[in-house]
Amino acid sequence: MPAPQAEGFRAGLVQMCAGRDVEKNLADASGLIREAARQGAQYVQTPEVTTLMELERGRLFAALRPEDGNPAVAHFSALARELGIWLHLGSMAVLLGNGKIANRSLLFTPDGEIEARFDKVHMFDVELPGGESYRESKNYQAGDAAVLADLPWGTLGLTVCYDLRFPHLYRALAQAGADFLAIPSAFTRKTGEAHWHVLLRARAIETGCFVLAAAQAGRHESGRETYGHSLIVSPWGEILAQGDGLHPAVIVADIQPGDVAKARQSIPSLQHDRPFRVEHASAVRTKEAS
User: Fold this and answer.
1) Catalytic annotation on 161?
2) N or C end of the chain: smaller count of CB under 10 Å?
3) In this predicted model, what pLDDT tens digit does every residue of 145-192 receive, in sequence order?
4) pLDDT at site 1
């Protein structure tokens, strides 16, 4: 894997309020991606479910296509090539051949080629106070691989939304060479208000990585309400740029890859893992007494 180069780059995050119309979502995303590129972003990330926000199963499946021959994939490939940027489609739902869907990230090179694919690993199955219910595993097939991709400035670890709550995934990515962690999301407002900032900052601090997290924001046609607050976080846990909680927007920040090494030199915890066992005190007492 290439070592991060000394020169930095500008990262851009697209914050959206995706609805039920795929074509409108593509147009909205494209306008914001173009704005990020106008602001000098060389890497641009969109949120989770960029192309469609739909909770009703029948409408969801009726609107989806496989990745192969998918007009949205072709659209973003052409846009990356036109703008000459690394374009990270945070995720889109794609049909699989088994009656399920993959929640898939796609990373496009400035030539429009797909450099990496990542299928969201952890499924958000929960009953929230107030009646909100989510059963991602009903429709989606979980991914089974963590993914790294080389950018010109270092190595990117790909994840999506609920993956954020599983710190061992990010530690594994960092120990495998990640300098930047992508966490495109569509956090609910309730969970976002409680946990979004602290979790993203924690993942940055624990790994010594930059965290890049584009988010959905606002009230969607499907009735879902998302938290927004797209964030770029430094390896030291500092918030470098942030969106609001309501509106589509672009945020950008200049990334200095050398800050990764500085943070890890100050706190080299990635090198300090030790094997251990988990014991229950009562079992230890019983063993000692026998």
Assistant:
1) yes
2) C
3) 999 999 999 999 999 999 999 999 999 999 999 999 999 999 999 999
4) 43
Cα 143 from Cα 137, distance rounded (Å) = 11
Note the pLDDT tens digit of each residue in 103-127.
999 999 999 999 999 999 999 877 7
Report the candidate in 222, 56, 221, 138 with the shortest Cα–Cα distance to residue 64.
56
Superfamily of domain 9-289: Carbon-nitrogen hydrolase (3.60.110.10)
Neighbours of 195 (CB within 10 A): 15
- CB contact burial 79-110 (16+ within 10 A = b; e otherwise): bbbebebbbbbbbbbbbeeeeebbbbbbbbbb
What is this structure's pTM? 0.93
Tell me which of 48, 54, 136, 225 is the catalytic residue: 48
Assign 97 a pLDDT band (cuts: 50, 70, 90): confident
Provide the 10 A C-beta neighbour count for residue 8: 16
Options 115, 120, 136, 209, the catalytic residue? 120
Q: Which ranges in 70-196 belong to alpha helices (H)?
A: 71-83, 136-139, 167-175, 189-191
Instruction: Tell me which residue has tokens 């995706």.
Output: 18
48 is catalytic: yes
Catalytic residue among 54, 115, 136, 161: 161
Q: What are the E-state strand segments in the chain?
A: 9-15, 43-45, 86-95, 101-108, 114-119, 125-127, 133-135, 147-151, 154-158, 180-182, 210-213, 217-219, 225-227, 231-233, 239-242, 249-255
CB distance 149 to 177 below 8 Å: no
Q: How far is residue 103's CA from residue 81's CA, in Å, rounded to a whole number?
A: 23
Question: Which of 7, 16, 6 has its CA nearest to residue 36?
Answer: 16
